[in-house]
Automatic annotation (TrEMBL):
<dbReference type="Pfam" id="PF00111">
    <property type="entry name" value="Fer2"/>
</dbReference>
<dbReference type="InterPro" id="IPR036010">
    <property type="entry name" value="2Fe-2S_ferredoxin-like_sf"/>
</dbReference>
<dbReference type="InterPro" id="IPR001041">
    <property type="entry name" value="2Fe-2S_ferredoxin-type"/>
</dbReference>
<dbReference type="GO" id="GO:0042597">
    <property type="term" value="C:periplasmic space"/>
</dbReference>
<dbReference type="InterPro" id="IPR036884">
    <property type="entry name" value="2Fe-2S-bd_dom_sf"/>
</dbReference>
<dbReference type="InterPro" id="IPR006058">
    <property type="entry name" value="2Fe2S_fd_BS"/>
</dbReference>
<dbReference type="GO" id="GO:0051537">
    <property type="term" value="F:2 iron, 2 sulfur cluster binding"/>
</dbReference>
<dbReference type="InterPro" id="IPR012675">
    <property type="entry name" value="Beta-grasp_dom_sf"/>
</dbReference>
<comment type="pathway">
    <text>Alkaloid degradation; nicotine degradation.</text>
</comment>
<keyword id="KW-0560">Oxidoreductase</keyword>
<feature type="domain" description="2Fe-2S ferredoxin-type">
    <location>
        <begin position="10"/>
        <end position="86"/>
    </location>
</feature>
<dbReference type="GO" id="GO:0046872">
    <property type="term" value="F:metal ion binding"/>
</dbReference>
<keyword id="KW-0408">Iron</keyword>
<keyword id="KW-0732">Signal</keyword>
<protein>
    <recommendedName>
        <fullName>Aldehyde oxidoreductase iron-sulfur-binding subunit PaoA</fullName>
        <ecNumber>1.2.99.6</ecNumber>
    </recommendedName>
</protein>
<keyword id="KW-0479">Metal-binding</keyword>
<comment type="function">
    <text>Oxidizes aldehydes to the corresponding carboxylic acids with a preference for aromatic aldehydes. It might play a role in the detoxification of aldehydes to avoid cell damage.</text>
</comment>
Length: 192
């Protein structure tokens, strides 16, 4: 019979991109370190390691979170999606394709976090969530238009040291337009 982990450790199961990974982790291990150091999922990047840059953004139960501020033990049993889990086989996620087509990056270090964040931004907007840039937050006003200003505000937790922001906004707008089947008007505005 396997011996019980020491009291400073716990046996957990991280479900990442649909795969279950049983692990014994030190209680101080962040989700970011567990992903990178224990599961070899190095797509998720460590930038500041203190919740300020967004490079480590992943989705937990469909919502974005900075994995450097999450303890791995707190992610036990939750559904985690990293940048490695967004594509469908060889077919890139529409957000990934838009970043590629529109040069939404330069060095690429912030890109996995930007992309995970953008995937969630598009879902949050589609669900009608307002942002700090939304003028009219009354329920009867309906969902705000995903303007470049809205995208910039919603993506403001993700810093890009190369300042590829113009293309990032354009890429998010295009992917959002594809999701709704509508025109990517924000993309045109962002490109203007
Ligand atoms: S590494 Fe997590 S926010 Fe910067
Ligand atoms: S592409 Fe270099 S930090 Fe964003």
């Amino acid at each position: 019979m396997a011996s019980a982990p020491p009291s400073t450790h716990s046996a957990i199961t991280l479900t990442v991109n649909g795969e279950k990974h049983p692990l014994t982790v030190d209680h101080r291990t962040t989700l970011l370190d567990a992903l990178r150091e224990r599961l070899d999922l190095t797509g998720t990047k460590k930038g500041c390691d203190q919740g300020q840059c967004g490079a480590c953004t992943v989705l937990i139960d469909g919502r974005r979170a900075v994995s450097c501020l999450q303890l791995a033990v707190a992610a036990d049993g939750r559904e985690i999606t990293t940048v490695e889990g967004l594509a469908d086989g060889d077919r890139l996620h529409p957000v990934q394709q838009a970043f590629l087509d529109l040069d939404g990056y330069q060095c690429g270090y912030c890109t996995p976090g930007q992309i995970c964040s953008a995937v969630a931004v598009i879902e949050e907007h589609a669900a009608g969530w307002p942002s700090a840039a939304t003028d009219d937050v009354r329920p009867e006003a309906g969902p705000p238009e995903l303007t470049p200003e809205e995208i910039r505000e919603r993506m403001s937790g993700n810093l890009c040291r190369c300042a590829a922001y113009v293309s990032i906004v354009e890429a998010v707008a295009r992917a959002a337009g594809e999701r709704t089947g509508g025109a990517a008007d924000g993309a045109e505005e962002a490109a203007a």
